[in-house]
Design goal:
Helix content is 31%, strand content 20%. The chain is built from ten helices and 17 strands. A hairpin with a 3-residue loop joins β14 and β15.
């Protein structure tokens, strides 16, 4: 989403730091003059980054899983899992940069020679770096590193998001090794969130909810979807988040779960759907609110909104420790199909899964979808967003994320109360 100029605010920020001032069916603000140049206050003063000790514990867990699965080492390229395990933040360019986590011993790195100093600035776990010059092969160097780690004929796991040219290059240079998926190691590590991770996700959700609430207070007749998106994106940034996305849909466009290329201008009585997220220290939020602009909602809008809320609540009720992930989808979908929509993924109705895993990536493992027999465990995090799409009319989506505790699911963001009080 493109960022737009943020509309300044005055008198909109409560002492708590949360945005106030939203009213049901917000009125046209196009003739109001913004007062002053005040900005939203940051909400991140109390944020505590993931500690080195926690990353070391992640490495220890990964090494235990490697041993249990009879794997000698895990290869992780630049991206989310690299940051998760080592704290090294590195953009995945055409220049190969890897971490190798052995079943025993210290983590090692393979990277471009001219970037060695920048890489070493970030190292807190492991200190051995194999560097390759621009006219050399990083894959030959990786094969050398694996051999020196004591895996001349062992089994190597490749993290799932490793790009083909890298995994293929390693396999060509070390054909004597066996290669398997890294999923048995990375998924059990990353799918279960620690208390520190949950705190960061909570902060990201707090920021996004406040930004959506502020965006809703700035609606005006004739504004574009991109304008609203820009306002919410900038609000997330000012509140201290790393703004990731703000999908804003008006009227009939709200029936398209991920939007339409057809431009929309806001009219009184339109459904306004806002699906937004940010990151805090690499951890994601994902919240959707659906409201009506400028007029009381129609009976049809109220009925579908209430049905969506009932479906979301049913999904939440089905999320219990030891229950399969698919139970959440089945419970939410049943509410919608019992009301005459669907069945299955047919429209009008719920055209996609009920939820997705979330953490350092906006969409992670642990989808709430038919066929996922994986059992819910303490520390798993996922969205509950059943969505009702009615093409030609509108769509309603209420999305909040939960984290599993021993007592059951807990909301990161309080669900919408009603179409009249979406932020109550």
């Amino acid at each position: 989403m493109k960022r737009r100029e943020f509309i300044s605010l005055s008198g909109m920020v409560a002492a708590s730091g949360l945005v106030t001032g939203f009213t049901p069916y917000p009125t046209d603000r196009s003739k109001e003059t913004p007062k002053g140049n005040s900005t939203l206050p940051s909400m991140t003063a109390d944020v505590v980054p993931i500690s080195v000790a926690e990353r070391e514990a992640r490495i220890t867990k990964a090494q235990r899983l490697l041993t249990e699965n009879k794997i000698d080492a895990l290869v992780v390229e630049a991206g989310t899992s690299l940051f998760y395990f080592t704290g090294v933040s590195w953009w995945p360019s055409e220049r190969t940069m890897l971490a190798i986590i052995p079943a025993k011993g210290a983590v090692r790195y393979v990277g471009p020679a001219f970037e060695e100093a920048r890489l070493r600035e970030q190292l807190t776990i492991g200190n051995q770096v194999y560097v390759w010059q621009e006219d050399e092969s990083p894959f030959q160097l990786t094969a050398k590193a694996l051999k020196e780690m004591g895996t001349p004929f062992g089994t190597i796991a490749i993290e799932e998001r490793t790009r083909f040219f890298i995994s293929n290059g390693i396999q060509k240079e070390a054909p004597y090794l066996s290669y398997v998926s890294g999923d048995p190691v990375t998924i059990p590590c990353r799918i279960i969130k620690s208390a520190a991770e949950l705190q960061l996700m909570q902060k990201a959700n707090d920021i996004t909810l406040a930004a959506i609430k502020y965006g809703a207070s700035q609606l005006k007749e004739g504004m574009s979807q991109d304008e609203l998106s820009g306002i919410i994106m900038e609000a997330q940034t000012q509140l201290g988040g790393n703004a990731d996305f703000a999908l804003c849909l008006f009227g009939k466009a709200s029936a398209y779960p991920h939007g339409t290329k057809v431009p929309q201008s806001l009219k009184k009585g339109d459904i306004v759907l806002m699906d937004c997220g940010c990151t805090v220290e690499g951890y994601n939020s994902d919240i959707t609110r659906t409201i009506v602009f400028g007029a009381p909602p129609t009976k049809r809008q109220i009925a579908i909104w209430n049905l969506e809320k009932e479906a979301q609540a049913a999904g939440f009720a089905a999320a219990r420790i030891g229950a399969p992930c698919e139970a959440v989808d089945a419970a939410a979908r049943k509410v919608i199909t019992d009301a005459g929509f669907g069945p299955g993924y047919q429209l009008p109705g719920l055209p996609h899964r009920t939820g997705h895993g979330i953490g350092m990536d906006g969409h992670e493992w642990g989808n709430m979808v038919k066929g996922n027999k994986a059992l819910l465990q303490t520390g798993m995090c996922f969205s509950i967003e059943p969505n009702i799409s009615i093409f030609g009319e509108f769509g309603i989506r209420l999305e909040d994320c939960v984290y599993m505790t021993e007592e059951g699911p807990k909301w990161f963001s309080p669900p919408s109360h009603s179409i009249d009080e979406p932020f109550a």
